[in-house]
TrEMBL record:
Name this polypeptide is given: Ribosomal RNA small subunit methyltransferase A
Enzyme class label: transferase
Highest taxon listed in the record's lineage: Bacteria
GO molecular function, one term: RNA binding
Alphabetized Pfam families for the sequence: RrnaAD
UniProt source species: Rhodanobacter lindaniclasticus
Gene coding for it: rsmA
Binding site for S-adenosyl-L-methionine: 12, 14, 39, 60, 85, 108
Family: Belongs to the class I-like SAM-binding methyltransferase superfamily. rRNA adenine N(6)-methyltransferase family. RsmA subfamily.
Amino acid sequence: MNARPKKSFGQHFLHDRLCIERIVAAIAPRDEDFLVEIGPGEGALTLPLLAAAGKLTAIELDTDLIPALRARAATVGELHIVHADVLKVDFTAMAHSHGVPRLRLAGNLPYYISSPILFHCVEHAAAIEDMHFMLQKEVVDRMAAAPGSKVYGRLSVMLQLACRVEPLFDVPPESFRPPPKVDSAVVRLQPLPPEELHDADPAQLYAVVKAAFAQRRKTLSNALKQVMDSDAIRRADVDPRARAETLSPADFVRLAKVVPTAQ
């Protein structure tokens, strides 16, 4: 019996068999993987992943879904269910406690809190090999946007400084129950290796990016005036007359590095 989707949890249950097969193929589970699914719901993706991998950890907040999910998985493979809010799950500690170097994450994320989940995962990027997520297509477009794009913004910069972002394929509303009012897409995120990570202070970087895009039509000298002055912007080899949407992620790193000397 199908569960009734709860609006409060932003539940849209995936049922498109072809789409599910494409996601599993994109993930390509291996025997040695420690797979973690965020928001398994009714198990549409859980069971095929479990069949392919043999074992899986699933993080589910809705207690009403857990008994049926556990029953369906009993003959498929080894499913461990963590009843928790994913925003409170320490993925680094999870990897360490199970003696694995890195986790592989997957899931059909609740669209209303997708950005907080993405940022939370990025905080644990050193303990994550890759992530395959279903998201609102508009969010995936923003994640992968290049400088100059109308949808390029804070999410684009912060994610691209931590991960390689690869949109895989789009998913129509009718692939879900109930159908969402937006198109969806599947994206692959691969955390960058240590040698490719920036060396700016994370708090300074966040402050600069947030301020720059808060009023994206303003020039940097105006948008960042509470963070740094025009001379500091020039020291970062950035034009104070430029707008945030024209800067590369590397430009923001250079800006973040001059913040302490500008205060």
